[in-house]
Amino acid sequence: MIDAATYGPWAVIAGGSEGVGAAFAQQLADAGINLVLIARKPGPLAETADAVRAKGVTVRTLELDLLDPGAVKAIREATDDVEVGLLVFNAGANSYGSDFVDGDLERFQGVIDLNITAQLALTHHFGGRMKLRGRGGILLVGSLAGYLGTAHTAVYSAAKAFGRVFAEGLWLELREHGVHVLELVLGVTRTPAMERAGLDFSVPGLIVAEPDDVAREGLAHLPHGPVWIAGGNDAVAAKRSGPERAALLEKAHAGHQRLIGR
Ligand SMILES: NC(=O)c1ccc[n+]([C@@H]2O[C@H](COP(=O)([O-])OP(=O)(O)OC[C@H]3O[C@@H](n4cnc5c(N)ncnc54)[C@H](OP(=O)(O)O)[C@@H]3O)[C@@H](O)[C@H]2O)c1
User: Would you state the CATH architecture of domain 4-259?
Assistant: First the structure.
């Protein structure tokens, strides 16, 4: 049961048009929470907005790229007149993979700007208002990739590790102010972005989660931060944690290579 008195009357979903973001939108609308949905592609954004409006809530859409320098200002302007009780920062799948020293530094920067810079800016803005109000929620969507370094996506893994550790500190800072903080850690999840990327969901032994299920888990665990590992992936996260980093890396790297057919 989502508590609209704590997390309403408005929620902002950065990355609220597809997959897990759209699932959050549906579930929050069911709880009567009005929505500001942000994404780049107009089609899925309008489709999700129409679907949740049909549930009776008010919806604003912002078609923008969170990497644009003016994005945060535009989001503030579009929300200054309403009370935002929940920020969901969902956008953040890896947009660029390459061995680091051979790669394009600007494109790596894009991964950091989305997962770290934009996330910090929105958390700072909305979190500050929630603290003053003495209530609210901040849900940051993370990844199992943030538990261990990965070859070819080293920057993405590091950005997701940042998100989790950041959420832990923020949880400590805000808990006595009535603001709930949760890092929702996802494993492989059947989203349109991953389908477009050609991920093979049929690999034997692979745990594949559905967007509706992980969104429901995230909202249920929001009052009980700082971290929730969704989709039954606790054991995978445990396998990626511990002091013997080289041994952990060798094992996970071999598994990852098999997964991507190398
Ligand atoms: N799917 C998985 O297997 C998986 C696994 C682990 C963690 N995660 C995490 O789960 C979250 C969601 O991932 P996803 O697979 O759904 O892909 P995603 O590419 O992060 O897309 C999610 C939403 O964010 C929007 N978005 C993406 N980049 C944006 C940008 N620069 N500016 C504005 N909006 C943007 C997308 O719409 P537009 O493309 O139209 O902008 C979509 O609505 C991410 O944080 C990801 O790291 C996913």
Answer: 3-Layer(aba) Sandwich (3.40)
